[in-house]
Design goal:
This protein has a single domain, classed as TIM Barrel, CATH 3.20.20.70. The chain is 40% helix and 14% strand. It is built from 4 helices and 3 strands; from the N terminus they run βαβαβαα.
Length: 97
């Protein structure tokens, strides 16, 4: 999948209960994509909890994906896209399949 969005909202270290409000307001304001970083406490649980509430045409992904294990966990949590800070061809190949 190729993302064509001008801006991705990136949240790092946000509390899970607060994330839902941020997500709703951000998407309502026109943001097309939001990313929660893998190094946020409980990041996988946050994505899993809020993924069903992502409106049509909007995306919720995970970032700071540094290896294949994190990529698999992010996908299992429901991430719609992944962002990596490094070039790991194994992670890239997994996401293309």
């Amino acid at each position: 999948m190729e993302l064509e969005v001008p801006v991705i909202g990136i949240l790092r270290g946000v509390e899970g209960d607060f994330f839902g409000d941020i997500m709703q307001v951000s998407f309502a304001a026109g943001l097309l994509a939001m990313e929660i970083t893998m190094n946020t406490p409980d990041a996988e649980e946050i994505v899993q909890r809020y993924r069903p509430g992502v409106p049509a045409g909007r995306l919720l992904g995970m970032g700071t994906i540094r290896n294949l294990d994190e990529a698999r966990r992010a996908v299992a949590a429901g991430a719609m896209f992944l962002v990596t800070p490094n070039l790991d061809t194994v992670v890239i190949r997994m996401n293309l399949s």
